[in-house]
Amino acid sequence: MARILSKLHFHEIPDVILSSIFSLVTDTRTRNTMSLVCLKWCKLERSMRTSLTLRGNIRDLYLLPDCFQAITKLDLSFLSPWGCPLFDSSQYSLLLSKLLAKSFPKIVSLTIYARNPSTLRCLAPEWPNLRQVKLVSWHQRFNNALVGSEFVALLENCYSLSSLDLSDFYCWTEDLPPALEAYPNVAASLSHLNILIHSLADGFKSHELISITAACTNLRELLTTCIFDPRFIGFVGDETLLLIASNCPLLSLLHLVDSTSVSINASVDHDHDEEYKTKYSSISHTTLGDFFTSLPMLEDLVLDVCNNVSDVWPALEFLNSKYMRLKSLKLGEFHGICRPDGFALCRGLEYLSIKNSADLTESSLISISLGCPKLTKFEIQGCYKITEMGLWKLVYVLQRTLIDMRISSCKNLNTQRSLQALEPIRDRIQRLHIDCVWEDVEHFEGESSTDTSSTKSTKLKRRYMWEEKKT
C-alpha cells in the first residue's frame, strides 16, 4: 500500500479536493504565487477567486482581465486616484461599463472611485444585484450638480442594497437625506450605513440624522459623525438621541462621534478640573437610560461627544443590569462613570475605552476590573488622575483575560510607569500601544540590573512596545 501511495502525484488529486485546499488560502500574495505553479493551478485559482482589487490605467482595455468569473467583491477605487473620473458621457464609457460587467458578472460588493455622478450612472445598471457598496472620492461635488444626485443612480438601480459605506466619500451632509427619502424601499433595505466621514469639517446635523434614521428603519449598524456642542445649530441632544433609538430599534452597532474628534488630534492634556467644565453637552443621564431602553439589541456602542457629560453612573448601571449583549463600549468625555461605592460597569464587556474622564481614579479602575471580568481590551486616554498603582491593580485582577492595552496622554503615566503597571500581563499581552512621555527612557534602560522590577519592565518594553497597526 505504501508503494502505491508513493507513486501518486499531487496533480492526480481530484479537482474537488484541490479546490477545497485552495479555498483555505486567503492571503492574496500566496494565491498569486500558487497560480504561477502551472497552467492547471492558474485556471483553478482564477476560477475560485472571490475578491479582487484592480490597479493601473483603466484606458488600457486590453489589460482588463476576464478570467475571474467567480469574483463577488471588486475594488475599483485605485483605477483613477488622481481625480480623473472613470466615466464620462462618451461611447467609450458605455463600452467600459459593458466590459466590466462581462468580466465580473457576479459582483455583489463594490468599492468604486466616484468622482462624479456619471460613474454610478454607467455602472449601477450593469450590476443590479449589488448588496454592499463603498464610494470613494476626495473632491467636492460639482457646483452645478443637484443635491443628492450622486446617490440617485445607485438607489434607483440597486434594489437589494443592504450596506452603504461613505466614510471615504467627500459629500455634503445635506446630500444624503433627500436621496434616501426619495427611494424609501431601498432605504428600508439598508442594514449597514457608515457615514463616519473623516473629511467633513462639520458632522451631520440633528435634523439630518433624524431624516436618515426615519428612512432607514431597519438599520442594524450605524456609524456617523455629528455635532454635540450645543453652541452650534443642529447639535445632537436628548431629543435627537431618543428619536434615533425610536427610528432604528434594531441597532446592534452604534457609533456617534463628534466631528472634532476625527478632524483634529483629540489627545488633549487636561491639567485642572476647570478645563473639563468649559464645554457641556446637552445630554442627561436620564435620557441616556431611556436611550438604552430603546435599543435592546445593542452590542457595540461608541459615544465620543467631545463635550462634558456628567453624573452618568445611573445610566451605565442600568445598562449593566439590562444589557448582557453589550460587548464593546467607548465613552468620550463622560464623567461620574463610577458610583461612589463602586459598581459593575457591564459584566459582559470585552472591550472598554474611556477618554478624557475627569474623575476616573484608582478606585474607579478597581471597580471596573471587578465589574468587567471578561475584559480583553482596555483603552484609556487623557485621564490625568490615573496612577501607576491604579493601573497595576486593574491589570492584576484582569491578568487572565487582558491581552490588548492602549494608554495615551495620561499625565501621571509616562513610559516607565506604564510598562511597570503592565508587569502582571507581560507574558500574555498580544498588542500594546503607548503614547506617553518618553523623557525617562534612557535613564530607565540604564538602571541597575539588581532592580528586579526595572529589569522586567525593560524587557517588557523591548518585547512588546510597538504601534498597533490601523485596520
Automatic annotation (TrEMBL):
SUPFAM superfamilies: RNI-like (SSF52047). Residues 12-50 form the COI1 F-box domain. It comes from the Eukaryota. GO terms for cellular component: nucleus; SCF ubiquitin ligase complex. Gene3D superfamilies: Ribonuclease Inhibitor. GO terms for biological process: SCF-dependent proteasomal ubiquitin-dependent protein catabolic process. PANTHER family: COI1 F-BOX DOMAIN-CONTAINING PROTEIN (PTHR13318:SF253), PARTNER OF PAIRED, ISOFORM B-RELATED (PTHR13318). This is COI1 F-box domain-containing protein. It comes from Dipteronia dyeriana.
